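Supplementary Methods, section 5.1.

A reviewer requested that the exact input to the structure prediction be made available. We therefore reproduce it here, unchanged from the version used in the analyses.
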Amino acid sequence: MYDEPLFLRTLSKLARVLPASYDVGAVLAELTGSVTGVLGLAGSGVSLAEDGKLRFVTAVTAASSDLERVQEQYQRGPCREAFDTGESVSVPDVRLSGHMWPEFAEAARRVGVAGVAGIPMRLADQTVGALDLYAAEPREWSDTDLSVARVLADAATSYIVNASSLRQQQQLNEQLQQALDSRIIIEQAKGITAQHDDITVEAAYERMRRHARDHNGTLRMVAEAIVNVGLRV
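The structure derived from this sequence is encoded token-by-token as follows.
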């Protein structure tokens, strides 16, 4: 029940899109739109883990959004189960399985969704969230359906994990650069103070530290004031 030519075009597009930018939101929107089209769904959505809870991120229809929000509120549903178990979960007609996830089943009846499936978004031993599939009619989810969804989810997950790693590296680089910048301006301020007051560099440094403590400031703030506006300590 999947569109094979569209699936192949989608894989090709993802291969081009993913390396082009590190916009996680855009990638997840591409994932939900693609899987909905390829599998002929009524909608789909993605929730990602934050501090152990799943948070709704994106969906392609209003009905999908409603179902993702219900899962976020109650932390129950196919998304949560797929995330917790690391395995795909599928239900042909969730309206008949209210005992599993009562709030979710009621919401599905309200928005006209019957068949649901949850696909874990994982890379190696790291699970970052889940992809939900929604069908308007009861659906016997085939192995092919779930495999196609997993391939697309894996591609997006790989991107998310790599983007997160890149951002962490960027943050580390920024922190290192800030530390280097601070060291440079502090060294400049020590030299200015030592020369102006004819004292050692060590004594100048202690004066700067004392001034920062006495005025509830940071050493860098004191150094910048010495270098840029002529503060004397």
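The radius of gyration is 27 Å. These observations are discussed further in the main text.
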